Amino acid sequence: MYRKLVRPLLFKIDPEKVHHLTFSLLRKMFKLPLVQSIVKKKFALEDPRLEREVFGLKFKNPVGLAAGFDKDAKLYKELSSFGFGFIEIGTLTPKPQPGNEKKRIFRLVGDKALINRMGFNNGGVMAAVERLKKNKDVLIGGNIGKNKVTPNDKAVDDYIICFDALLDHVDYFVVNVSSPNTPNLRELQDKEPLTLLLNTLQKRNSERPSPKPILLKIAPDLTEEQLLDIIDIVKETKIAGIIATNTTISREGLTSEKKEETGGLSGLPLKDRATEVISFLSEKSNHAFPIIGVGGIMSAEDAIEKLEAGASLVQLYTGFIYEGPQLIKKINKAILERGL
């Protein structure tokens, strides 16, 4: 129904407008009696065999919603009803910022992909905190970044502000230094500044009575040498794990006329590279840390590939848009069938 009826209608509307429209409709729908239970019955699959314990947290199932979809923590409860095992909010920055100029999201339908150059548009970390105070049972990841106007030599301060604000309201953190849409942000992936940033957050984390797992989200465009540096950094800083991967700046193999748009590419063209990165990190580190696999998961088989490559959990974004909420249940069913 989604692919044949709902998606064709939604895809007639500008991607960013349809995102806000969908959020508005879902918010209104879930206020109606029984809607939440109906949605859960149709889309969610609950089975104790799907439960996972990863970096000290218990996940209902290994399929999560990637950051970027619910940036401001406005709809995490409703979205979790579709069967996600966890929701990652953000990327959040200390101060609100509008992001880059519109138009800034582009569908590449023939490639089953999206290009976005949003630029960390969000209402600021404190606005999200107020919403998260109402959370009761959704496992939440907090994806944090820096404001566009903050120079890289002051970036640590921005990450500290977000970390401190969210500490009591999220279950794990994700340090985002890999978005291609904030100028010079990816320079923070270099070994020296990245080690400093993670060590600073880890020190702050260790001083709290209940420290939270900190993960690093990396770009798919890193070289093997850089990926080996990432393994060393995880070992040195003792962070909890890696999210592989963010969007790519590569345009290899695309056929859409919109392929020249600047920004990060997500969706099917990213699938193989994201899986390669997961496999490389898993094998070269001797499975030393958990990996959340994300990038190009458009089917249950795509998710299985990432789990078999070494991921402990997976996340959806573009696949959720193209394939609809039934994809979550399909993946969980496949996991049960494979005994993974």
Structural summary, described in words:
- The protein has 340 residues and is an alpha/beta fold.
- It has a single domain, classed as TIM Barrel, CATH 3.20.20.
- The chain is 39% helix and 16% strand.
- It has 12 helices and 13 strands.
- The strands form 3 sheets. An 8-stranded parallel β-barrel has the order 3-4-7-8-9-10-12-13, surrounded by 5 helices. It has a 3-stranded antiparallel β-sheet with strand order 5-6-11, with no helix packed on it. A two-stranded antiparallel ribbon has the order 1-2.
- Strand 9, helix 8 and strand 10 form a beta-alpha-beta unit.
- The longest helix is centred in the middle third of the chain and has 16 residues.
- The model has no long low-confidence stretch (mean pLDDT 97).
Name some characteristics of this structure.
16% strand, 340 residues, 3-stranded antiparallel beta sheet, TIM Barrel, alpha/beta
Estimate the strand proportion.
15-25%
Number of helices: 12
**SS class:** alpha/beta
Head-to-tail CA distance between termini: 29 Å
Largest β-sheet summary: 8 strands, parallel, barrel
What number of domains?
1
Helical fraction equals 25-40%
What Rg is obtained from the alpha carbons, in whole angstroms?
Answer: 19 Å
Strand arrangement, major sheet: 3-4-7-8-9-10-12-13
Q: Would you tell me the overall average pLDDT?
A: 97
Say how many strands there are.
13
Task: Tell me the overall shape.
Answer: globular
Return the string of H and E elements: HHHEEEHEEEHEHEHEHEEHEHEHH
CATH architecture: Alpha-Beta Barrel
CATH class, named: Alpha Beta
The CATH topology name reads TIM Barrel
Low-confidence stretches: none
Determine the CATH superfamily.
Aldolase class I
